Amino acid sequence: LSTDSQGVPLGQRKQYKIVEINDAGNAPSGSRRAQSPTRRISNEVKTSQYTWWSFVVVFLYLTFQKTANLYFLLVGIFQIIPSVSPTDGVPLQFTPLAIIIVIDAIFAGYEDYKRHMADDLTISAKTRVFNRQLREFEEVEWRELKVGDIVVANHEILAADIMILAVIPAEGSRSGGNMGLCYVETKNLDGETNHKLREAPQPTRNMFTNEHEAGKLRNTSYMYGLVANTGTDSKIMMSSGDEFPVKVSSIDEMTNKQVIVWWSSFCWDDSFMEAFVYFFATLASMGCTCPSHR
After folding, report:
1. DSSP string, 90-115
2. Is 129 exposed, middle or buried (0-12, 13-18, 19+ CB in 10 A)?
3. pLDDT in tens, 218-266
4. H helices within the chain, ranges in order?
5. Which conformational region is residue 135 in: left (phi greater than 0), alpha (psi within -120 to 50 degrees), or beta?
6. Quick count: other Cβ atoms within 10 Å of Cβ 124?
7. Hey, how many other C-beta atoms are within 10 angstroms of the C-beta on 227?
8. In 3-state terms, the chain is what percent helix, strand and coil (to 5)?
9. What would the pLDDT profile of 239-249 be if each residue is shown by its tens digit?
């Protein structure tokens, strides 16, 4: 097998990332640090689905993904065409459809507004980050965290994926005074109420395989940690899947299938009846025009 300079077979090389520890962001524009992709990932997390400028377009697109709404829209369009309209060109179907869409828009806008408020509240929370110039820890908002920052946590929710550097255990804790052990509560992530044991890794080249998931620090006086992943690059966001998942209920799925089957059968029956009538009308006309034989 072909191997690299470190003896690792090609194609099996482990992925890694470069973390500039406690970088104040003053690296020259052409330097390797400034070009590192880890520096460009913001710690802002967005769970909302709409913005003020895209609400109408995105909402209407999602609304007419429901085949029932699309069907009534097409019926209203056909009602406008005088040659096929049974209502003399008056789109009566648009009135109930518009009422349904407006009500759905009000509820969707209100729910998304609450998501915006929750996002702002989350990324505005405070944490303490080591300032290299001041040589002390200072309070910053979660949105300002960057990969490589050194943070200190004290019975608080961790703002990003943290690699444990050192732990000061609380008196009487189960860690037995070990400077590298702490307990984390992940109830808000996976629903588990048991505290999980986390340990500071030894300084090896594989130390970043023990990155710390977001959680709440427990049974510990305080902990020093290194920010390894932020924002959309964190484990909790990577495991959440699509950025804007569109949830479809089982009733909507069943309704969509029923409307498609009904509309297909209606078009088939209508086409079959037209072909049937045309066929017998043609035979009748041919019979009338044929000369009689005596």
Report:
1. --TTHHHHHHHHHHHHHHHHHHHHHH
2. buried
3. 767 778 888 888 888 887 777 766 555 667 777 877 877 877 887 777 7
4. 55-63, 67-80, 94-123, 187-190, 235-238, 250-289
5. left
6. 10
7. 28
8. 40, 15, 45
9. 766 555 667 77
